[in-house]
């Protein structure tokens, strides 16, 4: 728009060469100011102030060896820059700001007239913009890859001509809007970038949003020692940093505090699992006065043993009732997989099947062969691993499998969570074995989250709740007969996750604590704090 200088960007997904306003989608819009306002330039950035701010700081990168290590480090993070794009000369930095002096590749000064004309078409050359990213990466922690995905505003003042490249030092200054600290990785970082020479500003790029793209080895999968190792021995970090400073900053310190001593008598009341499950229980107490009550306690413990056995048996009973038909459904998914791989061939070799799938799934494929053979779907013809379908598989397809799935869901509603997960994975076997989809991507997709939680709860609700009920019953028996008080029970849950098991035992423990005057200290732990948010919601 000539009158307002407004710019709008459209893109037609269907017909790029035919203009149709109704089909076009607005992706971005902005305003271009073609007049250079010196007052704005001076108010935004003061060159002398920037240079003086870094004057007394030590160089992070200065010599050729350090520059080579720096670009080698960027390569490990997923940035493979060739010689034409390696323009860092030196870098200084604080926790939220960097100042880099750059040296554009000599090819910029060795262009013929036609190439110079092409270069002059750029307001900001791609090489220059890439070097801006290098300065940002010199301060971002970890090994993940970050890419710029949005910019709030660009103020362009002048072109970086060969004359400027020859006669003046070129600097890139970037200032993060919040300090970048430690080994904890954020998903987004926002910075403001200024490109300038010793005497004038080239451009101001505001609000550059860098978004994280996780690498194969995510920072969340690293131990604290691996994180510290990356932090200390990283070429972009200050090598003079003392290890004690890092430990003090990022590691926990054990501190002892005085507390009231509460004698714990519960552990001596705790009988072993073998005592509970063994039919012959012989309990001996030091106090002879309690010996007469021994038979009564034995009977109560036998009741606990039966409660555990019957509870576990009920789970097994539910699973056994559905085992045959659920296994049949899983086997039929495997048959559909073979039909897709073989294009409905009846006879085939195991070697040929392996040639159609990813090598990392060979062991899984061997197990699928065993499954089909055990259920009399296929038969081995000779020692050369030739096989043949011995059942009619024409009726086994996506439609008939869905009918069987609906039947299972109707007859065994208590196992719906397991059945849905089986279906979501079974229907994608072809994509998994041919490396089109990752198994974990399917198993832990958002659609399965609910069913995974239900499956986890189904197991925890019965087994975990049963075990804690029995333990608390055992404690109550002994506490009552020993007239003990001031008991304390400490429980440490390791790998607690989102609290799927914990939630079913808290009421049991609360009732036990109130009825026996017992103090309970429950420590809820996991290797990742990412689970704690959902646990708190529970």
Which keywords apply here?
538 residues, 4 domains, 20 helices
Annotate the secondary structure layout.
Blueprint: E1 6-11, E2 25-31, H1 38-44, H2 47-53, H3 64-76, E3 88-93, E4 97-102, H4 113-119, H5 126-137, E5 145-150, E6 153-156, H6 162-167, E7 170-176, E8 188-197, E9 201-213, H7 224-232, H8 243-250, H9 266-269, H10 273-277, H11 294-342, E10 347-349, H12 350-355, H13 362-374, E11 378-380, E12 386-389, H14 398-411, H15 416-426, H16 429-433, H17 439-443, H18 446-482, E13 488-493, H19 506-516, E14 519-524, H20 532-537
Parallel strand pairs: 13-14
Antiparallel strand pairs: 1-2, 3-4, 4-7, 5-9, 6-9, 7-8, 8-9, 10-12, 11-12
Helix pairs in contact: 11-14, 11-15, 11-18, 15-18, 18-19
Description:
- The two termini are about 55 Å apart.
- This protein folds into four domains: about 1-25, no CATH class; about 35-245, Thiol Ester Dehydrase, Chain A, CATH 3.10.129.120; about 255-285 and about 475-538, no CATH class; about 310-445.
- The model is unreliable at about 15-20, about 215-220 and about 280-290 (pLDDT under 50).
- The protein is about 45% helix and about 15% strand.
- By secondary structure, the chain is α+β, with helices and mostly antiparallel strands.
- The strands form four sheets. Strands 3, 4, 5, 6, 7, 8 and 9 form a seven-stranded antiparallel beta sheet that branches.
- It has helices at about 40-45, 45-55, 65-75, 115-120, 125-135, 160-165, 225-230, 245-250, 265-270, 275, 295-340, 350-355, 360-375, 400-410, 415-425, 430-435, 440-445, 445-480, 505-515, 530-535, and strands at about 5-10, 25-30, 90-95, 95-100, 145-150, 155, 170-175, 190-195, 200-215, 345-350, 380, 385-390, 490-495, 520-525.
- Helix 11 runs antiparallel to helix 18.
- Helix 19 (about 505-515) links the parallel strand 13 and strand 14.
- The protein contains 20 helices and 14 strands.
- The protein is flat, with a radius of gyration of 34 Å.
């Amino acid at each position: 728009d000539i009158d307002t200088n407004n710019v709008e960007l459209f893109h037609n997904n269907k017909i790029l060469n035919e203009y149709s306003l109704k089909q076009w989608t607005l992706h971005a819009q902005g305003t271009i100011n073609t007049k250079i306002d010196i007052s704005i330039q001076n108010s935004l950035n003061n060159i002398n102030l920037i240079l003086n701010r870094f004057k007394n700081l030590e160089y992070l990168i200065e010599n050729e060896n350090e520059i080579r290590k720096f670009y080698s480090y960027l390569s490990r993070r997923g940035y493979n820059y060739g010689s034409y794009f390696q323009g860092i000369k030196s870098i200084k930095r604080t926790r939220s700001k960097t100042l880099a002096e750059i040296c554009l590749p000599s090819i910029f000064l060795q262009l013929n007239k036609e190439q110079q004309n092409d270069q002059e078409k750029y307001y900001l050359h791609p090489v220059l913009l890439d070097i801006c990213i290098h300065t940002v990466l010199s301060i971002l922690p970890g090994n993940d890859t970050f890419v710029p995905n949005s910019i709030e505003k660009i103020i362009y003042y002048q072109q970086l001509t060969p004359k400027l490249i020859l006669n003046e030092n070129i600097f890139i200054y970037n200032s993060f809007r919040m300090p970048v600290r430690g080994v904890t990785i954020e998903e987004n970082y926002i910075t403001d970038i200024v490109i300038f020479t010793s005497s004038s500003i080239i451009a101001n790029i505001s609000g550059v949003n860098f978004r994280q793209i996780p690498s194969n080895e995510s920072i969340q999968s690293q131990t604290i020692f691996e994180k510290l190792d990356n932090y200390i021995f990283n070429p972009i970090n200050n090598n003079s940093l003392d290890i004690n400073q890092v430990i003090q900053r990022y590691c926990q310190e054990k501190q002892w505090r005085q507390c009231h001593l509460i004698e714990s008598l519960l552990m001596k009341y705790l009988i072993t699992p073998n005592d509970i499950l063994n039919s012959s229980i012989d309990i001996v107490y030091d106090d002879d006065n309690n010996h007469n009550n021994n038979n009564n306690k034995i009977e109560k413990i036998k009741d606990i043993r039966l409660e555990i056995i019957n509870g576990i048996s009920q789970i097994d009973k539910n699973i056994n009732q559905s085992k045959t038909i659920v296994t049949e459904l899983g086997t039929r998914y495997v048959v559909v997989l073979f039909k897709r791989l073989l294009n409905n061939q009846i006879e085939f070799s195991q070697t040929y099947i392996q040639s159609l799938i990813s090598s990392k799934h060979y062991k899984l494929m061997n197990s699928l062969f065993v499954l089909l053979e055990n259920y009399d779907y296929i038969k081995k013809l000779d020692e050369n691993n030739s096989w043949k379908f011995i059942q009619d598989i024409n009726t086994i397809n996506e439609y008939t499998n869905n009918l069987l799935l609906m039947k299972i869901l109707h007859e065994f509603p208590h196992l719906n969570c397991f059945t849905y997960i089986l279906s979501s994975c079974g229907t994608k076997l072809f994509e998994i074995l041919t490396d089109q989809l990752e198994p974990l991507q399917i198993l832990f997709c958002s659609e399965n989250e609910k069913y995974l939680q239900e499956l986890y709860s189904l197991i925890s609700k019965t087994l975990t709740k049963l075990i804690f009920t029995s333990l608390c019953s055992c404690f109550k028996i002994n506490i009552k007969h020993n007239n003990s008080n001031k008991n304390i029970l400490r429980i440490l849950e390791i790998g607690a996750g989102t609290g799927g098991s914990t939630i079913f035992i808290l009421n049991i423990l609360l009732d036990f604590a109130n009825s026996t005057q017992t103090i309970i200290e429950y420590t809820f732990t996991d290797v990742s704090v990412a689970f704690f948010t959902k646990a708190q919601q529970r």
